[in-house]
Specification:
Low-confidence stretches: 1-16, 18-22, 124-134
Oligomer: single chain
CATH class of one domain: Alpha Beta
Number of strands: 19
CATH topology of one domain: Beta-lactamase
Helix content: 25-40%
Strand content: 15-25%
Distance between the termini: 41 Å
């Protein structure tokens, strides 16, 4: 429990005095009403000194009113008083209602009553010696008049509602800002990330971040709750994030000047082990939509293998490929020597080979191959994700560009990490971040043949040992990978995102690295991937 004692600020409020007939008809009652109006106006405005001076015990009244208004710090205060009633020698009593809007606690109102007395020594309205601020009349101060729920020695304050934590896989508080999200400091509500999605669970359904309570002025201990649900407590949200993997991913992005993301997955069960973003804010690791470029050649290679092509088959890699007047080329216009194979073109990421192989595929070939990796389904991950899109080709040019992860093909870093995880495990395991929230995992409609898997694994390993993934050479763990350089925008030459995806042969770890507007997959994303893997192995 924490009591929020808030500082000063502006107040807005007013006081009204109403009667059934618009007036009392009694001059003394009307004079008393004016004195009460002055007191309530001062209170509503937060002027405790002025309000106290209008009572029979100024110091006590000033102290309590100042305490209440400072602790609650209402953004708006409205006090409405009713018609006064004379009670013999006890003065004139007025009912009134206090209405406040309190940041973090919402609307709070209560009813009370105040008695207005004739000031001592001021029996005559014309008493020349009366110097009191209220003139002839003054408000009788007592603690319960300020709020009937209080007795002497108490005041009103705000108590922070207990909000549960978002936890990593080890049960410790998760340290991944773009995944956790943000809580609005004024309302106390989660507004993004897991804080937003699971706000009700984390807050215990309290509705507000703070509640109004009565506290002992000396000890600060809570005596009673006046708003909220009192002892309502939130329930933690437990994620699959492995703190060691998350830390390794975050450290790999330190010093990176471009927007970047790393995702890591356990291929055996789909658990998301890390989702790091630089800078924080948008969770591009799970929600971003990007052309995947040549990392998508894993899917294209899958489609070609399913059509009967073998890794050892001849695969020419010329400098250019032309499709209905559209020119495709390899990065830096490289070529591979005569006699190169499908395996070679995959490892070195030869665009022209894949573009020229499009005729081997039906128009739905890439779409169907992507389905084995879960792309096209709705994933129940426990948080917002972008699950990728590989539309059926609508033209020869559309199919050509799609074979190299361009045209209308889009994916998130999560999707690309899942592709690598599927090759490693053999079947698609839908990624999961919050297991308790997942009702039904998406299942891929098709499975990959063992022969296709063996070929893909061999070609992804060759990418590291012989091809464009040379940044990972020499690293322990037998990394398998695919690089990608994805064009975007309309500039000439086009700007490019840098990608690398892969998995470890010796452990259950698949991963994806994205560097927005970052250049080349092998040259720019590769070193970040290598740093991530080195961080994990010490």
């Amino acid at each position: 429990m924490a009591l929020a004692v808030l500082g000063g600020g502006g107040y807005w409020g007013y006081t009204t005095l109403t009667g059934d007939d618009g007036g009392s008809g009694d001059p003394e009652v009307e004079e008393a009403a004016k004195a009460l109006t002055t007191f309530l106006d001062a209170w509503a405005a937060g002027d405790a000194k002025r309000a106290g001076s209008l009572t029979d015990t100024p110091d006590n009244a000033e102290s309590l009113i100042k305490s209440v208004m400072t602790n609650l710090k209402p953004s708006k205060t409205l006090i409405e008083a009713g018609r006064g009633e004379r009670k013999a020698e006890a003065g004139i009593t007025f009912p009134f209602t206090v209405k406040m809007i309190i940041p973090g606690a919402g609307d709070y109102s209560w009813k009370s009553k105040a008695t207005v007395l004739e000031a001592k020594g001021a029996k005559s309205s014309g008493a020349a010696g009366d110097q009191r601020a209220g003139g002839k009349w003054q408000v009788e101060f007592n603690t319960s008049m300020i709020n009937p729920a209080m007795v002497p020695g108490q005041t009103l304050a705000l108590k922070s509602q207990e909000r549960a934590a978002i936890l990593d896989a080890n049960g410790e508080e998760l340290r991944a800002g773009s995944v956790v999200g943000v809580v609005d400091p004024k309302s106390g509500k989660g507004v993004s990330g897991l804080e937003g999605r699971y706000d009700k669970q984390l807050s215990g359904g309290a509705g507000h971040a703070k509640s109004v309570v009565v506290v002992d002025r000396n000890s600060g201990s809570v005596v009673k709750n006046l708003t909220g649900k009192g002892e309502a407590k939130g329930t933690p949200v437990r994620t699959t994030i492995d703190p060691r993997v998350q830390e390794a991913a975050a450290a790999a992005l330190e010093g990176v000047e471009k927007n970047a993301a790393i995702v890591a997955i356990d291929p055996s069960n789909g658990h998301i082990l890390a989702a790091a973003n630089r800078p924080g804010g948008m969770n591009r690791a799970l929600e971003g939509r990007y052309p995947p470029g040549s990392t998508f050649k894993v899917v294209t290679a899958t489609a070609l293998l399913q059509e009967g092509m073998k890794p050892s088959d001849r695969a020419d890699c010329p400098k250019f490929a032309h499709v209905n007047g559209q020119q495709f080329e390899n990065q830096d216009q490289f070529v591979l020597p005569a006699g190169s194979t499908f395996r070679d073109s995959f490892a070195h990421s030869c665009n022209t080979f894949f573009v020229n192989s499009r005729a081997k595929l039906p128009k739905e070939g890439l779409h169907d191959a992507a389905a084995a990796y879960g792309i096209g389904g709705n994933w129940d991950v426990g948080t917002i994700t972008y699950d990728g899109s590989v539309p059926v080709s609508t033209s020869d040019n559309d199919k050509a560009a799609s074979t190299i992860g361009q045209a209308r093909v889009e994916a998130s870093p999560l999707v690309m990490a899942s592709i690598a995880a599927t090759v490693k495990h053999g079947t698609f395991q839908q990624p999961v971040l919050v297991p308790d929230a997942v009702k039904k995992r998406y299942e891929a409609p098709t499975r990959l043949d063992q022969g296709v898997l063996d070929s893909l694994r061999d070609m992804m390993r060759a990418t590291v040992t012989e091809g464009a993934g040379k940044a990972l050479r020499g690293l322990s763990g037998e990394p398998h990978a695919k690089t990608g350089t994805a064009e975007f925008g309309s500039e000439t030459p086009p700007r490019t995102h840098a990608w690398m995806i892969g998995y470890q042969g010796d452990r259950e770890l698949a991963w994806s690295v994205l560097l927005e507007d970052g250049g080349s997959g092998g040259r720019d994303a590769g070193p970040i991937a290598a740093k991530f893997l080195r961080n994990l192995t010490g």
